[in-house]
Amino acid sequence: MSWLVTGGAGYIGSHVVREFGSAGIDAVVFDDLSSGIESFVPEGVPFVRGSILDRGLVADTIARHGVTGVVHVAGYKYAGVSVQRPLHTYDQNVTGTQRLLEAMADTGVDRVVFSSSAAVYGTPPTELVTEDTPKAPASPYGESKLIGEWLLRDQAVATGLRHTSLRYFNVVGSGAPDLYDASPHNLFPLVFDALAAGRTPRINGDDYATPDGTCVRDYVHVADLAVSHVAAARRLDAGESVEPAYNLGSGGGVSVREIMDAMREGTGIDFTPEIAPRRAGDPDRIVADGTLAARDLDWTMRHTLLEMVTSAWAAAPRS
Fold first, then answer.
1. Percent over 90 (pLDDT), the chain
2. In 45-54, which positions are buried (b, 16+ CB within 10 angstroms) versus exposed (e)?
3. 3-state SS string for 179-223
4. Using one digit for the tens of pLDDT, what is the confidence trace for 65-104?
5. In the chain, N or C terminus with fewer CB closer than 10 Å?
6. Is 274 helix (H, G, I), strand (E, B) or coil?
7. Do 61 and 8 touch, CB atoms closer than 8 A?
8. Average pLDDT score over residue span 159-163
9. CA 77 to each of CA 39, 186, 234, 242, 316: distance values in angstroms, whole numbers, following the listed order
10. Full-prediction pTM beyond 0.90?
11. If DSSP codes are grouped into helix, strand and coil, which group holds residue 71?
């Protein structure tokens, strides 16, 4: 039994690979290194460099390594940039998922855990998002993830594919000192870069209808996320039932000001964040309900906000 992790050299994927190792399950990494980092792949774990758009290479990798299931993390994950690069986003996330599913069908692999996104909800009509909340993605990225879920659903009807999709908002922290978030667009790396350069981090708006006036969002630790990806894989291996999709959410969220306070404490760098104008369209509060995932996928918030900051700061590369 072996699981292929597409995007397994990336921030989230590498944590999933290590969680497979902790669970005693063999993993194979497939990554084109467009954003992944080869050193994130543990020693002894097979690594194939290539694009999921290459159906033949994916199928060959599955066959050569006796792969029985796939955790599909690979994709273009920059929601804001996807507005400027919609065709690239659809190519990577929609066509790429199609090619992966074709390769799986070619080789008889019938189980997949899909790394989806809470971006499928767009700006939801309620503050607490459940799996049944209407889907209204606000970017090509969110749309591409929703289409990915549809592809899995339709392939299940056609071939009996067993699948589940995991949706989440903001992934932070680090589960190992050599794994870090290298994204140029995510909040934690942006704040770390600002502090390292002597710049003052900014809060966009402090007049929202929340306890401290700043937006409240869901932040989850990447290591907690990895546990639930592997738990989903194990349920599929065991033939146990799964929901089509699960939210991996805190149910409560944290405010931007709380994050800044934790940044000050966790980094040891004293600062007072600048208050900038609101960004258009930012809702007061959006958090996800993780009840179903807690029931089925060993989902729980094992890390405090301060632990999210300190683990990320300890792993962050220093220039």
1. 91
2. bbbbebbbbb
3. CCCCCCCCHHHHHHHHHHCCCCCEEECCCCCCCCCCCEECEEEHH
4. 999 999 999 999 988 899 999 999 999 999 999 999 999 9
5. C
6. strand
7. no
8. 98
9. 20, 10, 26, 25, 20
10. yes
11. strand
- What length does the chain have? 319
* In the chain, domain spans: 2-171+219-247, 173-218+250-315
CA-to-CA separations, 183 to 36, 76, 192, 257, in angstroms, rounded? 10, 11, 12, 22
What is the distance between the alpha carbons of residues 253 and 274, in angstroms, rounded to a whole number? 22
Identify the CATH class of 173-218+250-315.
Answer: alpha beta
Buried/exposed code over 95-129 (b: 16+ C-beta within 10 A; e: otherwise): ebbbbbbebbbebebbbbbbbbbbbbbbebeeebb
pLDDT tens readout for residues 177-232: 999 999 988 999 999 999 999 999 999 999 999 999 999 999 999 999 999 999 99
C-alpha 37/C-alpha 182 separation (Å) is 9
Q: For domain 2-171+219-247, is the CATH number 3.40.50.720?
A: yes
Distances from the Cα of 201 to the Cα of 16, 190, 209, 217, angstroms: 30, 8, 22, 17
pLDDT at 283: 83
Query: CA 23, CA 228: separation in Å to the nearest integer?
Result: 12
The token duo for 302 is 């094992």
User: 138: how many CB neighbours lie within 10 A of its CB?
Assistant: 15
Residues tagged active-site: 141
Tally Cβ neighbours within 10 Å of residue 211: 11
What is the separation, in whole angstroms, between the first and last Cα of the chain? 41
Alpha helices in the chain (DSSP H): 11-22, 55-64, 79-82, 86-90, 96-107, 140-159, 187-196, 222-237, 256-267, 291-296, 305-315
Amino acid at 28: V
The pLDDT mean for the chain works out to 96
| pLDDT at residue 1, rounded to an integer | 79
